[in-house]
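Case study 2.
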Amino acid sequence: MDMFDSLPSFYGTDNIITYDCGDDVFMRIYYDIDEGIFMSYKDKLLSDGFVGRQKHDIEGNIHYTMTGKGMTLQYYFNPCSRSARLICDGYTAAADIQPADCPRVCNTELYQFETDHSLIDCGMCYIIRCADNSFFVIDSAHFYSIHDNDRIHDFLRSMTPENEKIHISGWFISHGHDDHICKCTDYLLYNMKDTVIDRFYYNIVDDNHRDNANWDGAGKGFRRSFFKAVKESGVPVVKLHTGQRFFVGNLEFEVLCTHEDVWPASCADYNNSSTVLMMKTENTKVLFPGDASAESSKVLESRYGDYLKCDILQLSHHGHHGTSAKFYEYAKAPVILCPNTEIKINEEDHIPANKVAKAFAEEFYISANGTVKLTLPYKKGSAEVFADETTENFDGIKQLWNYDYTDEFKEKHNKEFVERGGKL
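Prediction:
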């Protein structure tokens, strides 16, 4: 909080609240202001010795990054709520805010990686192969996807020359749920011998948050293990904040929402702490909402509207209750990537938002049915679906989760698995 004491006073409103963003990062929200007041304070900060590093404007949501006094400021204005957020961050490692030369040695490829769904229906891992043959990885898999750290490693190894180390130019974690972080933790512990990671990118909400009473206790333990593994790896961490625009290889990213934007609304549903990224590359827009749910959806819809329109969209929260039908109306995505099993997404078919997403989709790919490769820029119908590697362990699922299916259902499901190239 001493950070704010070192800044010029903010004039123009008395409606101010403060939020602990975690990692000794703090935010103030200034309500009931207009763009003029916002810009006037920006000029004050520059006059006080801060240096402007980046300006970015998304649909009138104006964002500045400034550095000085041993910290980085993220300062942005939201016209829809007539508010500004000022984040004082002494934690963030530097992200590349300008595009760099990226040698083109391969196609840019987006993979929806098939996580092992034998015992669990969630988990999510996306891998982008950059033009320089480095990789940007998004999330990982659940602890019940027992060998997925090895499977992710082997997948990256298969695309890396034998005499070179696997080069992960960035690993993004959308939020701290088990099915998104656990196999990243295991990768750091067991698969780093031939791997180099340049940076981690995330903004995981602090477990001391006001709304933590509803958060799973075991999940907090997994997050502690993740943070410990990241710290011991020595890989720099970029704490992402809304409005930032950064570059990795030939990929451009925009941060559209974090838990800092949901505040002061409730994060009792932990999924609303997801960081939402828009990726742009090869004239293609790909939207990754992670597990963003109702409160995050309100932020995204009110701020960005039609800007959410994209070419490829990850279905939020595995197709469970996530973003709203209105969100998918704005996105109008012709290609949907669904990180779930076919069984579970069919059981969630009644959810109105899923119906809207599917109505716009010309192509719909379920991760459990096999890894999918989309070469970018994407041409309709050009996706390559790899052989299905894993299928439901029905006996194990019954023991773990106490639900079962008929013998006829299992027989049909296993037959379709074999037809997709799987081996029972």
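The chain is about 25% helix and 25% strand.
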